[in-house]
Amino acid sequence: MPELNLVLLGPPGSGKGTQGERLNADLHLPYYATGDILRGAVRDQTALGKSAKEYMDRGDLVPDELIVGIIAERIDSEEARQGFILDGFPRTTPQAEALDAKLGELGREVSSVLLIDVSDDEVVRRLGGRRTCEAEGHVYHVEFNPPKVEGVCDIDGSPLIVRDDDKPDVIRKRLATYHEKTEPLVAYYDAKGVLERVDGAREPSEVTDELRGILAAVGS
Ligand code: ADP
Ligand code: ADP
Q1: What whole-number distance in Å separates Cα of residue 66 and Cα of residue 64?
Q2: Is residue 142 in a domain?
């Protein structure tokens, strides 16, 4: 099996986390979600968390230099030698360039960028109803993917919470940030010939099936 260096791209709420969890279970590759890493740092009140919190609460991106080193270290680790799944990184052109530079140092490159496409209206619907498990970040939706017991994670039994940045005004700000800072990466990766676009406005299992089909072709 060739190495698989994967990037999940898409607006907030497009289903990167939902699909990433499933691909992670299929592929047994390390899964690095920068939002989860940053929320963990905020929770643990580390120096990173203290610096990142104000940006996250506003719906802005944290500065590139806070996050690039963390991802570079993960990619260079033993566990990521056969590949990795990135969710939420890169989110700016300098981050994409830093990823290419790091992979280049290691004689590697991005294998595939999976763009999960959904409209702004759908993002607002999804993030407005998102519930997140406090312990591990498992993701639910009050209407589209409810837990078996309201307010409780099916997987680890921890409470489900509304993320601070899943409030209506912050959601709108995050969408604007996506269009301004992250959407240019679609053209960036398209030009490199590694972009795969998937319609994310379908049942989660249909999206997963399409992603699996794409990865079967990339990995063969
Ligand atoms: P979502 O899953 O809704 O797209 P994330 O959990 O990925 O959101 O990210 C939450 C917040 O963490 C972002 O709004 C941003 O403030 C910060 N963040 C996550 N990844 C990055 C990154 N690569 N660069 C800068 N900020 C980031
Ligand atoms: P992201 O990581 O891109 O921010 P999530 O995976 O957290 O996105 O999904 C955002 C919200 O939308 C969650 O509440 C999730 O349960 C729900 N969701 C994810 N995929 C779908 C889908 N295909 N259809 C409807 N709701 C979905």
Answers
A1: 5
A2: no
93 within domain boundaries: yes
Q: Hey, which of 141, 199, 208 would you mutate to test ligand 2's pocket, going by the most ligand atoms within 8 Å of its Cβ?
A: 141
- The protein residue whose alpha carbon is closest to atom 5 in ligand 2 is 15
Q: Is the CB of 86 under 6 A from ligand 1?
A: no
**Tokens describing residue 198:** 């998937």
Q: Is 32 exposed, middle or buried (0-12, 13-18, 19+ CB in 10 A)?
A: buried
**Gap between the Cα atoms of 196 and 203, Å rounded:** 18
Per-residue pLDDT for the chain (220 aa), expressed as one digit of tens each?
A: 679 999 999 999 999 999 999 999 999 999 999 999 999 999 999 999 999 999 999 999 999 999 999 999 999 999 999 999 999 999 999 999 999 999 999 999 999 999 999 999 999 999 999 999 998 889 999 999 999 999 999 999 999 999 989 999 999 999 999 999 999 999 999 999 999 999 999 999 999 999 999 998 886 5
- By residue range, what is the domain housing residue 26? 4-119+170-218
Sheet with 83-87, side-by-side order of all strands: 31-33, 83-87, 4-9, 112-117, 195-199
The structure's pTM equals 0.95
Residue 43 catalytic? no
Domain count, the chain: 1
Q: What is the DSSP letter of 78?
A: G
Residue 177 counted as domain residue: yes
The sign of the dihedral angle between the CA atoms of 58, 64, 65, 69 is positive
Residue 190 inside a domain? The answer is yes
